[in-house]
Amino acid sequence: MSTSSPSDDAFIDPQVTCSTCRACCCQLEVILMGDDSVPRHLTLEDEWGGEVMRRLEDGWCVALDRDTLLCTIYERRPGVCREYDMGGLACREERAHLDAPPAVIPLVPLASIALKP
Ligand code: SF4
Ligand code: SF4
Whose atoms come closest to the Cα of 32: which ligand? Predict the structure, then answer.
């Protein structure tokens, strides 16, 4: 018997796959944790002194291969990315923007993130 439903936060939709996505979640701000070991040149210090994945002007994380839409640091990707469930609630909410005009996709302005020296 199923213990979750589409209305549950814990529900994982088995129909969802990254192969039909445009790496929506790789446009979100990714905050690094202490045990992450991402190459430093791919990160920035945010205005609060935290370390985040750097993003380019197209909005995507710098570590995303723009041709394949695959993560180029998959084995060293941050914990936040590892814990992001394909088909989970956050994933489904991001995918809901797939058919929307790019302007409505919520992005953290790059201007709010300072480059590391
Ligand atoms: S985890 Fe979800 S939002 Fe991220 S690329 Fe895969 S399907 Fe898209
Ligand atoms: S590190 Fe990889 S999985 Fe995480 S946001 Fe960047 S490209 Fe996506």
Answer: 2
